[in-house]
Structures are given as structure tokens and as C-alpha cells.
Write a structure and sequence with these properties.
This protein is 39% helix and 29% strand. The protein has helices at residues 2-16, 26-37, 70-78, 89-95, 119-122, 140-149, 165-168, 183-187, 207-212, 214-232; strands at residues 18-23, 55-57, 63-68, 84-88, 100-105, 111-118, 132-137, 153-158, 174-179, 190-199, 201-206. Strands 2-3-1-4-11-5 form a six-stranded mixed sheet, sandwiched between helices. Strands 8-7-9-6-10 form a five-stranded mixed sheet. The radius of gyration is 21 Å and the shape is elongated.
Length: 233
């Protein structure tokens, strides 16, 4: 009986833990100052890029961080494995999870989701005349919706990286991908011909947790909102 009660207590402690999912890479570096402003400091191992750990403690006993791929942040939060997260609205648009609430634009990870094609092709091309396109992209759902809204039939080739190679190797004539400075496009002979959306990273919340743990989570949302506001002033 004592052993069973201990298992119950451990389960309760896990259920009370607040887990925040963060994306690896550039956005993570931009998110860390915001975490500091809301009072969250990761354990030292979090800064070790060679660490294979995925879950980390913080200075707050009941707050932990998980570091996952940017596309996986939304899945962790939507299914309740994490209660809060940081995800770009490109990811949110692609998955369109009804279980996710995105109350705060953090103003980080700014870029754009665009259509690009070879510069030589673009010289005589008019996107308004398209009736059918074949694009390589990590965002097939967003791409299909975008082109369908214009009456354009889209054939999407799903790739997880190296999108810029697709036109050169004949996989597709165009790509739909994130663009920041545009340098990668230029180096691969591509140019932007159409912008689909402006992108930035948002604080996201699991809707069920937002309701059932409102007394805990709502103040965190307000802290993040205040941190963003303070940084802008």
C-alpha cells in the first residue's frame, strides 16, 4: 500500500509540473531573454549545445523546459505533453491544431513565408497567370490553401530541408519556404515572387490546460505579455 501511494504521489507531482516546449536553433536563442524577463532560468546544461538531454530543470521547482524540433513544439502542446510552448505562426498555420491557443506574439523569429522560383524563370513569369503549380515545401497544407484561394491547383512535394535544390534538380519549378535575409535564395539562383505570410513566434498554450489550470497558467501568459511589452518600450 505504501508503495502504491508513492506511485500516486509521483503521478500527482508530474501532473502538477508546468512544461514549456521550446524550439531548437535560432528562435531558442531569441527566446531565452524573454524567459529571463519572466523569471525562468534554465539549468546550466541547457546552454550546452552538445548535451543530448531534451528535458531540463529551471530555477523554479515545478517548471521544466523541453527542447525539441520547431515543428514538434506544436504537437507537444496540442496533445498536452507540454502546457506552454514557443512556435512560429508558420507551424501553427500548417498544423491548425484546434487544441492550441496563441495569446501572445513574442516578436521574435521574424521572417516571411514566400514562393520562390529560379531567377531566369521569374523574369518572364506572372504569378497572376498561374493555373497549376508544383512546389517543394515543408508546408503543404499552407501552400495548398494559399493557392486554392487564388483558384490555382497546387501539387506539393513534401521536403523537410534543402528546398532550394528542388528547382535545380527538376523536382519542382518553385518552392514555398521561410525567407529571412534572402541570401540562401540568391546563392541558389532563386528569387521571391510571392509572399504568403509574415512570420513571428508566439507563446502557445494547450487549451485544456488553460481552462483546468487557469489560476496557474493565466498569470504566466500575462508575464510573457508584459515581458514583450517592456522590451518594446
Amino acid at each position: 500500500m505504501l508503495r502504491r501511494n508513492e506511485h500516486v504521489r509521483k503521478a500527482l507531482r508530474v501532473s502538477e509540473e508546468l512544461i514549456i516546449a521550446l524550439p531548437k536553433g535560432r528562435i531558442l536563442k531569441e527566446a531565452l531573454p524573454i524567459l529571463a524577463r519572466v523569471g525562468i532560468e534554465p539549468e546550466p546544461a541547457f546552454a550546452d549545445e552538445n548535451s543530448r538531454a531534451l528535458k531540463f530543470a529551471t530555477n523554479l521547482p515545478h517548471v521544466s523546459l523541453v527542447r525539441v524540433r520547431s515543428f514538434d513544439v506544436a504537437t507537444f502542446v496540442a496533445f498536452g505533453a507540454a502546457q506552454l510552448g514557443v512556435a512560429g505562426n508558420d507551424v501553427l498555420m500548417e498544423f491548425d491544431f484546434s487544441e492550441i491557443y496563441a495569446p501572445v506574439d513574442l516578436g521574435i523569429g521574424r521572417c516571411r513565408l514566400s514562393v520562390a522560383e529560379p531567377a531566369a524563370q521569374a523574369a518572364g513569369d506572372d504569378p497572376r497567370a498561374w493555373s497549376h503549380v508544383r512546389v517543394a515545401t515543408k508546408y503543404p497544407n499552407v501552400a495548398r490553401r494559399h493557392f486554392a484561394a487564388r483558384g490555382v491547383q497546387a501539387e506539393c512535394v513534401k521536403l523537410n530541408g534543402a528546398m532550394e535544390l528542388a528547382p535545380a534538380l527538376g523536382l519542382s519549378s518553385r518552392i514555398v519556404d521561410l525567407v529571412s535575409t534572402g541570401r540562401t535564395l540568391v546563392e541558389n539562383g532563386l528569387v521571391e515572387v510571392e509572399q504568403i505570410a509574415e512570420v513571428s513566434s508566439r507563446l502557445i498554450v494547450n487549451r485544456a490546460a488553460f481552462k483546468t489550470r487557469a489560476a496557474e497558467i493565466v498569470p504566466w501568459v500575462e508575464r510573457f505579455r508584459a515581458a514583450v511589452s517592456d522590451a518594446a518600450n
